[in-house]
Specification:
The chain is of the alpha/beta class and 329 residues long. The chain is built from 12 helices and 10 strands. An 8-stranded parallel sheet has the order 3-4-5-6-7-8-9-10, with helices on one face. α2 runs parallel beside α11.
Length: 329
C-alpha cells in the first residue's frame, strides 16, 4: 500500500482510504457486524484513513468507527469527519457556536477528545470565501477540538477558493475516470499550495465497477435509486452526475481498456489505481459494504499502470463524456 502525506495535516495516510457513508445510510442496509468487518478488513490490508460525516445515518457511521477505535486502541489510523449538513443550508448557519455544537457531537460519536481532521461538508458557496468562517475554524484548532481542518466541495471554483486559504489542510472533491476537471485545475493548485486532495466518489457510485446493467435494481434507501435527478442532494454525488445509460456504456469501454492493461485486476481496481497515479492525489476513499469489497479496494493501492493506459482513459473521457458533463463539474 502506498503511503502519502495528507496535505497540511503533516500526517501520512494510505493512498487507498475508506469512505464510510455506506456504513451510515443511503446505500442500502449494512448491519453493525458487517460494518465492523469492513473496518477490520480495510485496516488489515493497510488502509489507514477513514472518512465519515456527522450526517451519515445521523451519526451512525461515526459511532461505528468510534466502537472500532475502542476495540483497536493501538490502531494507527487517521479519521476525518465532516460537519455542516445538519442545518438549513444558508451561509449564516456556519458560525463558531454551531461549529462547537457539531464538533461536540462528533467527538462524542467517535469517542475522542481531539478530531484528526474536520471538513466543512459541501456548504453554500459563499461560505468558502467568508473570513469569519476560517477564523472560527482556527479557533477550534486553538481550543484543541481538532488538529486540522479542510473542506469538501462540489465545484472546482469552490476548491480553488479554499486552497487559497493559509490553514486549509485538505480539499475533498469528486474526481474519477468520469470526471477530469479537478485533475486539470484543482490538483495543480493544491500541489503548489501544499494542500492534500481527498478523492471521493472514485468509482462514480459504482459505475466503474462495470457490474451494473439497465435492469439493475437499487434498494429504495439507496441514493442511486432516489437521487438520480438531484431531488435529495447535489446530483453530482450520484454517478458523478453522468446520465446512467451513458455511464453504463462508457463503463463497459473502460472495463475493456482495464482488462487489456491489467487482466489480473478488476475494473474497479484499475479505476482506483488510475486515480492514485494522478499527481497530487493524497488519498482515495471508495466505500465498501462488505469485507471482500474492502480488501479488493485496498489491493488497488499497489497496482501499477502504464502511461499508455492513462492516455487511453483521457481519450475516452474526451470523446465520450466531456461534452456531456455539466460545466460546473
Amino acid at each position: 500500500m502506498q503511503q502519502r502525506l495528507l496535505g497540511r495535516t503533516n500526517r501520512t495516510v494510505s493512498v487507498i482510504g475508506l469512505g464510510t457513508w455506506q456504513l451510515g445510510a443511503d446505500w442500502g442496509a449494512v448491519d453493525e457486524a458487517e460494518a465492523q468487518s469492513v473496518l477490520d478488513a480495510a485496516y488489515a490490508e493497510g488502509v489507514s484513513f477513514f472518512d465519515t460525516a456527522d450526517v451519515y445515518g445521523d451519526g451512525r457511521s461515526e459511532q461505528l468507527i468510534g466502537r472500532w477505535l475502542r476495540a483497536n486502541p493501538q490502531a494507527e489510523v487517521t479519521v476525518a469527519t465532516k460537519m455542516g449538513r445538519r442545518v438549513e443550508q444558508v451561509p449564516e448557519a456556519y458560525n463558531l457556536e454551531a461549529f462547537r455544537a457539531w464538533n461536540d457531537r462528533s467527538r462524542a460519536n467517535l469517542g475522542v477528545e481531539t478530531l484528526d481532521l474536520v471538513q466543512l461538508h459541501c456548504p453554500p458557496t459563499p461560505v468558502y470565501s467568508t473570513d469569519a468562517v476560517y477564523d472560527a475554524l482556527d479557533t477550534m484548532v486553538a481550543e484543541g477540538r481538532m488538529r486540522s481542518y479542510g473542506v469538501s466541495v462540489e465545484t472546482v471554483d469552490e476548491a480553488l477558493s479554499a486552497i487559497a486559504r493559509p490553514n486549509i489542510a485538505t480539499v475533498q472533491i469528486i474526481v474519477n475516470a468520469f470526471r477530469h476537471k479537478p485533475l486539470e485545475q484543482v490538483l495543480p493548485a493544491a500541489r503548489k499550495a501544499g494542500v492534500g486532495i481527498i478523492a471521493r466518489v472514485p468509482l462514480a457510485s459504482g459505475l466503474l465497477t462495470n457490474r451494473y446493467t439497465p435492469q439493475t435494481k437499487f434498494a429504495a434507501d439507496d441514493h442511486r435509486n432516489f437521487n438520480r435527478d438531484g431531488s435529495a442532494f447535489d446530483v453530482g454525488e450520484t454517478f458523478s452526475g453522468v446520465d446512467y445509460t451513458t455511464g453504463l456504456q462508457v463503463a463497459e469501454q473502460f472495463a475493456q481498456l482495464a482488462a487489456a492493461e491489467a487482466p489480473q485486476a478488476t475494473s474497479a481496481q484499475v479505476a482506483l489505481a488510475w486515480l492514485a497515479a494522478q499527481e497530487g492525489i493524497s488519498s482515495i476513499i471508495p466505500g465498501a459494504r462488505n469485507a471482500d469489497q474492502a480488501r479488493a479496494n485496498a489491493a488497488a493501492g499497489s497496482l501499477q499502470l502504464s502511461e499508455g493506459f492513462n492516455a487511453a482513459v483521457r481519450e475516452l473521457y474526451d470523446t465520450k463524456l466531456r461534452a456531456q458533463i455539466h460545466p460546473r463539474w
